[in-house]
Amino acid sequence: MKTTISLDGVRDKNVMQLKKLNMALFPVRYNDKYYADALSSADFTKLAYYNDICVGAIACRIEKKEGGGGAVRVYIMTLGVLAPYRGLGIGTKLLNHVLDLSAKQNISDVYLHVQTSNDDAIAFYKKYGFEITDTIHNYYTNITPPDCYVVSKVIAQVDQKK
After folding, report:
1. Is 128 noted as a catalytic residue in this protein?
2. The N-acetyltransferase domain covers which part of the protein (predicted)?
3. Regarding the domain delimited by 5-154, which CATH topology (the fold level of the hierarchy) does it fall under?
4. Hey, how many other C-beta atoms are within 10 angstroms of the C-beta on 6?
5. Distance between CA 25 and CA 19 in Å, rounded?
6. Active-site entry in 75, 111, 125, 149
7. Minimal CB count within 10 Å: which of 27, 98, 107, 133?
8. How far apart are CA 2 and CA 29, in angstroms?
9. Catalytic entry in 30, 85, 97, 113
């Protein structure tokens, strides 16, 4: 049997899948605003299915850049894959989906926060050209260490004029 990895949009009817995944994956409980942002980001928030089992998700928020004259950037709120399904290309597929979509929509950059102790996540993002651009002390309130890195990537724009 061929294994398939498929992505599906998050909608009102399946947002519970995202909530269940987040509870299993992250030490943080997300509020209603997180889920509202995830739903409003349309194609930038996706559930990942491995052979029709929901095993991962990426949730993004589209932000206007300060003083950017209408420019927007993508903030990856969460990207996670259940432990037994890591290393199968699911996180890569989710991340590449957002990076490709960003390039097509002329979004200048993508960024996220990563706990300073999360070496696996830092290595994962560096593999895709992200760089640590800042450190925020005491970013997290209920987890140790409380510090995070701001990890970001400038997106090469797709030339629309050709």
Report:
1. no
2. 5-155
3. Aminopeptidase (3.40.630)
4. 12
5. 10
6. 75
7. 27
8. 35
9. 113
